[in-house]
Design a protein that fits this description.
heterotrimer, A: 216 residues, mainly alpha, MetI-like fold, 85% helix, 0% strand, elongated, C: 402 residues, alpha/beta, six-stranded mixed sheet, four-stranded antiparallel sheet, globular
């Protein structure tokens, strides 16, 4: 590991790191926000479940690089525009999370749902106040997967010129030099670990009842 | 877009060593090789873990960790190492296939062990009680019953490999990824999109074919994809791990009276 | 015959030592149903599973027909023993027919021959032939259980082990399964060890009952009638339950109960309230037994409420309860009297035709007589007198508990 090189290029690396954080986090959050209502729909209306899941599946089947390449044509952006990455990864995240949300809602015991209704909760409020909170652990697990995947997928976009940590790999390849590559991998892992931890902690904070039970 | 169509309909692009059929074969070859290696490694280990019930934490932890690894970085890292260590084609091909295989292992491993672990203990008990040896229980009962999950793991792995093989073009591998990489350096957007479309079609078709194979191989007595009505967090994490890299999500069988 | 020779199963060591089964010595007779019964944690299932070596004893020997089970290769041993468990454990990936054919195929029989045997067995356990090509997921719990039994019978093993096979179904289905199982055993005569936590099931099914107490101790090993009437200790008495006196009545045939004549009305005939005799209590209903053309009892009608001139229909009748047949027990006789609106139990002959009625007080007299007789017997044998008449073993087997 050539620390000198790293020292000299700290600014560039940091800017790439920041870009990477942004490019991975934004789609994850957007994807979640979109997947929540869609997943709730799929859960509520059984007939839509099959269609939505099949579409999601189809989307998820498309390899990332392919999507990064095709989107500019559809969106009218340039190839190396980070927007492509955000849109593509958002699509992936939605595709992954729709099913997770639907299944998470399904895992809430029907009796709980029924008592909420019996107590006078309207469907939407029941969803937001009762079912979603109970579904948080499962959604959280899915979100962690999505976040971590996104971190890895962002780096692929380096091939198209998008500036982020993935560029370190290309630099290393061109210069026949391990340092940037290892640095890139380590930083990616770090970012993934941070995202993973943030989500874990958020889930724990949002579900105080699970902690209470496990301490018995 | 229309550029891509033009490119795809140009006869020249379908012949020669840079033509579509040749690239298709290359892509399929890498995929097949990587999957074969992954299967040979992951199936037995997954079966063993699922059977004995040990090390599951370790395995899912590892699978999660592997998902975090940037594939591009891994490819380039090993490619450099390969270039430094070997001569000739194997220098790049070897490491690339190794990476592909490594990435294909987690979905197959997770799903195999989950599938086997999910076999109803009563079924296992009955099999043993009827006089099957340990090996017979595994091959005649556990594996067939776990087959739906195993197949879905294989499908996940397939998609993961196809996707990564595309990226591997950057380390001079062939396959459809070449069109994307070369197109990028030549500023030939049509070629890039054509490549992207070809990869997408390959992925989707391949997945459908695997699904079809699964349909014939899996006993009709088993419900297809198991997401049980009361998915616990760990169940769903397994289900997601199947879908980790890139996978096909399918509607699970949802009979009305399903518990 | 199966022998347990001082068999123990101990888990853990030193301070954490728990005995699932403690020094069990018991002889299980050939061709009979022996029931292991007891509360959770009493070692009944552990003991059962030591017979086919699903669990290995810590000490002691298990012998089947004099052969030490440890001297035979375990899978081979198990192929010769039928094994039925709760929830059946059917292979979900195989058809019903292939499930049943499992052991014969394992033993090397051709799949075709095995399937033929399987088809026969399917019929034997009361399932239609069409079910053979279905998958377990398509069957109800009761059906799955029957397939489980058929599967255990496929290799025609002399010994069958059954671990709470009927516990996972609802009571109605359970009663049906028990009855059919008894019928099947009547045809097959296998050596059966049956585990249950339900004393009623044990009493109904078992030729002999082994009552286990928590900690793997064998508390009593005797016929059902014996266990009900002479429980060996407080544990057994408590486990059997507080109405064991009443239940023990199932084991005494009603035999010589006086049957009184009973005037009857024919279903569909017309009658009028004038048939109520003038000296009958005016505030009470006057019950008359109604029979059909075959002289089968259909119900009781209150003569005071008959509409004159209109033929008697089923809608006019109040149904009675049990019927007292020639083989019925004292318990059935008492119930017949108590469940009838008139207080008179209908007595029928072997063809189901009404021969008269029995009164509750006559049944109670008979119970008292039997009790006194048993007391004299007990005194002669110098045994502690129990509360209820025991009847003898053969009658116990012949009586149909209600």
């Amino acid at each position: 590991m050539n620390w000198n090189w790293l020292n000299r290029n700290t600014d560039q690396i940091l800017s790439w790191l920041l870009a990477h954080l942004w490019l991975a986090a934004l789609p994850t959050l957007l994807g979640l926000l979109l997947a929540l209502p869609l997943g709730a729909l799929a859960f509520r209306y059984r007939w839509s479940y099959a269609t939505l899941i099949t579409l999601a599946g189809l989307l998820y089947t498309i390899p990332s690089l392919a999507l990064f390449v095709v989107l500019p044509g559809i969106l009218g952006t340039r190839i190396l525009n980070p927007l492509n990455v955000v849109v593509a990864l958002t699509l992936y995240t939605v595709a992954l999370l729709v099913r997770v949300v639907a299944d998470a809602l399904d895992s809430v015991p029907p009796l709980v749902r029924q008592s909420a209704t019996a107590m006078g909760y309207r469907p939407i409020r029941s969803l937001i106040n009762v079912q979603l909170p109970l579904a948080i652990p499962v959604i959280g697990a899915g979100l962690r997967v999505a976040a971590v995947s996104n971190v890895s997928l962002v780096s692929v976009a380096a091939l198209l010129g998008v500036p982020q940590l993935g560029q370190l790999f290309l630099v290393g390849f061109q210069l026949n030099f391990y340092t940037p590559i290892v640095a890139g991998i380590v930083l990616c892992l770090l970012v993934a670990a941070i995202f993973d931890t943030i989500i874990l902690v958020a889930v724990r904070i949002a579900t105080p009842w699970t902690r209470a039970v496990s301490h018995r | 877009m229309t550029g891509a169509w033009t490119w795809l309909t140009t006869g020249a692009n379908w012949s020669g060593s840079g033509g579509v059929p040749a690239r298709l074969l290359e892509h399929l070859w890498y995929t097949f090789l990587a999957l074969a290696i992954a299967l040979v490694i992951a199936l037995p280990i997954g079966a063993a873990i699922g059977h004995t019930g040990r090390l599951t934490g370790l395995v899912s932890g590892l699978a999660n960790a592997l998902r975090a690894l940037p594939t591009l970085g891994l490819l380039i890292l090993l490619a450099l190492w390969g270039l430094g260590t070997f001569k000739g084609d194997i220098a790049l091909l070897g490491p690339a296939i190794a990476v592909l295989a490594i990435l294909a292992i987690p979905p197959i491993l997770s799903n195999t062990y989950a599938g086997i672990a999910a076999v109803d203990p009563a079924t296992r008990d009955a099999a043993k009680g009827m006089g099957m040896t340990g090996r017979e229980v595994l091959t005649k009962v556990e594996l067939p019953v776990a087959l739906p999950l195993i197949m879905s793991g294989i499908r996940s792995a397939f998609l993961q490999v196809v996707a990564t093989a595309t990226i591997a073009a950057v380390v001079s591998l062939g396959g459809f990824g070449r069109y994307v990489i070369d197109g990028n350096s030549q500023q030939n957007y049509s070629m890039m999109v054509a490549g992207a479309i070809l990869v997408a079609v390959l992925a989707i078709l391949g997945d459908r074919i695997l699904a079809l194979i699964g349909h014939f191989v899996i006993s009709p007595g088993l419900t297809g994809r198991k997401v049980r009505a009361r998915a616990t967090t760990s169940d769903l994490v397994v289900a997601i791990e199947q879908e980790g890299g890139s996978a096909v999500l399918e509607p699970a069988n949802r009979a009305g009276g399903d518990r | 015959m199966i022998n347990f020779d001082d068999v123990s199963k101990i888990f853990g060591e030193g301070d954490h030592r728990t005995a699932a089964v403690e020094d069990l010595t018991i002889e299980i007779p050939t061709g009979k149903i022996t029931v292991f019964v007891g509360p959770s944690g009493c070692g009944k299932t552990t003991s059962l599973r030591m017979i086919n070596r699903m669990i290995e004893p810590t000490s002691g020997t298990v012998l089947i027909d004099g052969v030490d089970t440890r001297s035979i290769d375990a899978p081979k041993l198990r192929r010769g023993i039928g094994y039925v468990i709760q929830n059946a454990g059917l292979f979900p990936h195989r058809t019903v027919l292939d499930n049943i054919a499992t052991v014969p195929v394992l033993d090397g029989q051709s799949r075709k021959a095995a399937r033929a045997v399987a088809a026969e067995l399917l019929e034997r356990v009361g399932l239609p032939e069409s079910m053979g090509s279905r998958y377990p997921a398509q069957l109800s719990g009761g059906q799955q259980q029957r397939v489980g039994v058929a599967r255990a019978l496929a290799a025609d093993p002399p010994v069958m082990l059954m671990d709470e096979p009927f516990s996972a179904v609802d009571p109605v289905v359970r009663a049906q399964l028990q009855d059919e199982f008894l019928r099947l055993q009547g045809e097959l005569g296998k050596t059966i060890v049956f585990v249950t936590h339900d004393i009623d099931e044990a009493v109904k099914i078992g030729d002999r009952i082994a009552v286990f107490a928590v900690g793997g101790r064998l508390a009593q090993y005797a016929t059902p009638a014996e266990v009900l009437s002479h429980p060996a200790d407080d544990f057994v008495a408590d486990f059997v339950g507080h109405d064991r006196g009443y239940r023990a009545l199932s084991f005494t045939v009603a035999g010589n109960l006086p049957v009184r004549d009973e005037p009857t009305l024919l279903l569909g005939s017309t009658a009028d309230p004038s048939l109520v005799p003038p000296d009958a209590q005016p505030s009470e209903p006057y019950w008359v037994l109604v029979v059909d053309d075959a002289r089968q009892p259909r119900g009781w009608v209150d003569a005071r409420r008959i509409t004159a001139g209109r033929p008697l229909g089923l809608g006019d009748l109040v149904l009675g309860g049990s019927l007292v047949g020639p083989q019925s027990s004292l318990r059935t006789a008492l119930d017949a009297a108590l469940s009838s609106p008139s207080g008179r139990g209908v007595a029928i002959d072997a063809d189901g035709r009404v021969i008269g009625t029995v009164e509750a007080r006559d049944v109670l007299d008979a119970i008292e007589t039997a009790r006194v007789a048993q007391g004299l017997l007990d005194a002669a044998d110098q045994r502690p007198v129990s509360g209820a008449p025991a009847g003898d073993a053969e009658q116990a087997a012949a009586a149909v508990p209600s």
